[in-house]
Amino acid sequence: MWDPGKYLTFSDQRDRPAFDLIARVRAENPRRVVDLGCGAGNLTALLTGRWPRAELEALDASAEMVDAARERGVPARVEDVRDWKPQPDTDVVLCNAVLQWVPDHVELLHRWLPELPGGAWFTFQVPGNFDAPSHASIRELAAEPRWRGKLDGVLRHDDVVRDPLEYADELADPDLDVDAWETTYVHALRGDNPVLEWVTGTALRPVRAALDDEEWAEFRTELSNRLSHAYPQRPDGVTWFPFRRVFVVAHRA
């Protein structure tokens, strides 16, 4: 289950890659714009502001997130992205920090892109930090005897997303112009162990679902010690959190 409030705690930092992604799209008058995996709808305004005359389509697999999006006035619907099919007038698609949750997403890209009309843009970004201490610490702790029985197979590994070159090579096609790159953001976080709070809203969701309340509190305490060591707080209260992300923009000629 997604917690929109927890996820939006760091919305300024989480949303920045979407702005950088959409800045690469040169569509002028798209007919239909899709927020694929819209979450709480906090980025949908970015699309409607850029292309106010386009038909908006927004969907997410989480009912909690869709409810939050609807409270923002976004006409979102509950639907798994794996079931989505582009309409004939789909000219722009934004898929922001979604596909890392879908193990077979490269196959989905191979299905979706040929179905897009000429001139369409498909854009996505995924976290590329699965080998960072924020995620490696979770996997290491989960693999210890105390937790292995309940958490074996629950977490994603560091191969769930591809490098920019791999995505570019996978999507290479004479009818597609592919722009792939990566960026490492250095977020300045504040608060008590903010990296723990960050991953609680995302990477730790499967762990929370697998543990009861007492186990969850114990797991978080153990993880907190590891993350505070890996990401020490500066004397001014700032904790630096490097975060690598992978971007792809595909334009159908």
UniProtKB/TrEMBL annotation:
Enzyme Commission number(s) from the entry: 2.1.1.144
Highest taxon listed in the record's lineage: Bacteria
Main enzyme class: transferase
Pfam families, sorted: Methyltransf_23
Protein name (database record): Trans-aconitate 2-methyltransferase
GO MF annotation list: trans-aconitate 2-methyltransferase activity
Alphabetized UniProt keyword annotations: Methyltransferase, Transferase
Alphabetical GO biological process terms: methylation
